[in-house]
Amino acid sequence: MATRSSGPRRGLGAVAWHLSMLAGLALVLYPLLWLVASSLKPSGEIVGDLELIPESPTAANYGSAMEGIGRVPAWTFFLNSLVLSSGAVVGMLLSCTITAYALGRMRFRGRGVMFAAMIATLLLPFHVMLIPQYIVFQRLDLVDTYIPLLIGKFLAADAFFVFLFVQFLRGIPRELDQAARIDGAGHWRTFWNVLLPLMRPALITGSIFTFIWTWNDFLGPLIYLNSPDQYPLPLALKLYIDQQEFSDYGAMIAMSVLSLVPVGLFFLAFQRFLVGGIATSGIKG
C-alpha cells in the first residue's frame, strides 16, 4: 500500500515543483516582457500602464529612437558602447592573463603577499576610490575621454579575473611547463604557446563578463564623460527624459530594447563556454 500511495504523492510533488518554477520564471521575465510591450505603445500610454498587451501597437517609438537626440544619431551611442566594451575586453585579456601567469606560475619573492593584496582589493568598494581617481584624472586633463574608463583594464585592475585565471592555471599540470623548458622555451613561449591555448574556457568566461559589465555600465561614463557624442547607450538613455521640456518615454524604452540585442547575441554566441570556464577553474587536476 505504501508503494502505491507513494506514486501519486511523487506525481503531485513534481507538478507542484514545475508550477513553482514556472511562477518564478514568469516573475523574472515580466519586466523584460513589459519593456518589449511598452516599446510598442504610444508614449502617452506607457506611464502608469501595467498591461502587457498594447491596445494599439505602433513601431513609431523605434523610428524616434533611431533618429537620435539632437545632432547625435543613435548609431553613435551603439558605436561608443562597442568601442568601450571591446577595449575593455582586449585590455582585460592582455593584462590579466600575463598577471595571472606571473602569480600562478613564476616564483619570486613577495608573490604570496602580492596575490593576497590583490585579493584584498575585492573587498574595497568602487565608490571609495571614486573621488580620488576623479581628482587624478581631472588634473591629468583626461576627463571627458575614454582613458579613465579603460586604463584600469590594461593595468590588471580587475582582481576578480586575475584570480579566475590563476585558479584555472593551478589546474593545469606543471609538467607541461617543464616539458616546454626542456625544449628550450622561455616564460613567454611557455605562456603563449602552451598555457594560453589551454586557458580558452576561462578567457571566454572573462570576456563575457567584461563585455556585459562594460556595456551596462552607467556610473563610470556618468562620472567621466561630459560630451553627448561620447555617451554609451546606458548614459544616452537619460537624454530622452527631460523634466523641463518634452520627455519621450516611448523612444527611451525602444532604445532600451535595442540596447539589449547586442549583449544578448554576444552572450548566446559564447554562453556554452561560460559554465565550463567557471566549473573547471581550480578543479582540474
Radius of gyration, Cα only, in angstroms? 25 Å
Class derived from helix and strand content: mainly alpha
Report the biggest beta sheet as strand number plus sense, adding barrel if it closes.
none
Q: Which shape, going by the Cα principal axes?
A: globular
Query: What is the average per-residue confidence, as pLDDT, rounded to a whole number?
Result: 85
Report the uncertain regions. 281-285
Question: Superfamily at the CATH H level of the largest domain?
Answer: MetI-like
Number of domains: 2
Counting DSSP E segments of at least 2 residues, the number of strands comes to 0
Name of the top-level CATH class of the largest domain: Mainly Alpha
What fraction strand? under 5%
CATH topology of the largest domain: MetI-like fold
Percent range of helical residues: 55-70%
